[in-house]
Design goal:
Helix content: 40-55%
Number of helices: 12
Order of helices and strands: EHEHHHEEHHEHEHEHEHHH
Oligomer: single chain
CATH class: Alpha Beta
Bound molecules: adenosine-5'-diphosphate, magnesium ion
Radius of gyration: 17 Å
Strand order of the largest sheet: 3-4-2-5-1-6-7-8
Number of strands: 8
């Protein structure tokens, strides 16, 4: 069964898109089949995967509105080796149009329902707000990955996000869990980083990934070449950190699978 993760944080600029693109490429490097769903009208994940958002015939917008089938809209990221359900500015209209639709929170879930098993992992890149698009991501997902920048206001807004996740769990998607909290743009020399890390450990315990993503200029450069860091500069600290994250995720999944099998015996 494919694992569907929403990569979300209503703050902009915390590394959601960078995480989505680079985690997708890293999972491909471990021979997993991956679909990246771009759910941000900015289309940064689409562009960062080497797909031109300005020349899309159809996009995730048409899929959400039920006007195109998901499999007809996906494109291959040649640089990343994964499939992409691309987005562009058209998606801005969907935020409003969805409000009048039947099962408005479940449009993405329904679109993925019969086809998600084509992939081992589906990663959804969310917009920087808790709007209907993010609600669609959280309703379709099994787990939430929250990238956080360990800076002064990092924890502000986190309670609103956790509250939204709890509401979705109560009403629309009882199986949804917080999969992991990821520290991005990490700088261990900064004492504030250390303080925020300590608070995150206290609040989230072992949900906090041990892997930290360092601040690394290659991660910032790669998108303008339409590539994940792994194809732009495989030796870079950023590319290596995202490989480590993929490894940590896979180990966690194997461990929880074993625990489930064990309890079933
Ligand atoms: P979000 O999707 O949450 O808005 P992005 O992934 O687009 O955030 O990241 C915001 C900016 O920071 C982008 O310009 C990106 O290239 C840069 N960035 C993200 N992660 C890192 C990192 N670890 N090191 C350096 N720059 C980064
Ligand atoms: Mg983004």
């Amino acid at each position: 069964m494919s694992k569907i993760y929403a990569i979300t944080n209503q703050k902009g600029g915390v590394g959601k898109t960078t995480t989505c693109v680079n985690l997708a490429a890293s999972l491909v490097a471990t021979k997993k089949r991956v679909l990246l769903v771009d759910l941000d009208p900015q289309g940064n994940a689409t562009m960062g995967s080497g797909i031109d958002k300005n020349s899309l015939k159809e996009s995730v917008y048409d899929v959400l509105l039920g006007e195109a089938a998901l499999l007809d809209v996906i494109q291959r990221s040649e640089s990343g080796g994964y499939d992409v359900l691309p987005a562009n500015g058209d998606l801005t209209a969907a935020e409003v149009q969805l409000l009048d639709m039947d099962r408005k929170e479940q449009r993405l879930k329904l679109a993925l329902k019969d086809v998600a098993d084509k992939w081992d992992y589906v990663l959804i890149d969310c917009p920087p707000s808790l709007n209907m698009l993010t609600v669609n991501a959280l309703t379709a997902a099994r787990g939430v990955i929250i990238p956080m920048q360990c800076e002064y206001y990092a924890l502000e807004g986190l309670s609103a996000l956790v509250e939204t996740i709890n509401q979705i769990t109560a009403v629309l998607n009882p199986g949804l869990v917080i999969e992991g909290i990821l520290r991005t743009m990490h700088d261990p020399r900064n004492s504030l980083t250390v303080d925020v890390s300590a608070q995150l450990t206290e609040y989230f315990g072992d949900k906090l990934y041990r892997t930290c993503i360092p601040r690394n200029v290659r991660l910032a450069e790669a998108p303008s070449f339409g590539q994940p860091a792994l194809s732009y500069d495989a030796q870079s600290k950023g590319a290596i950190a995202y490989l480590a994250l993929a490894g940590e995720m896979l180990r966690r999944n194997e461990a929880s699978l074993k625990a489930t099998e064990h309890s079933a015996v």
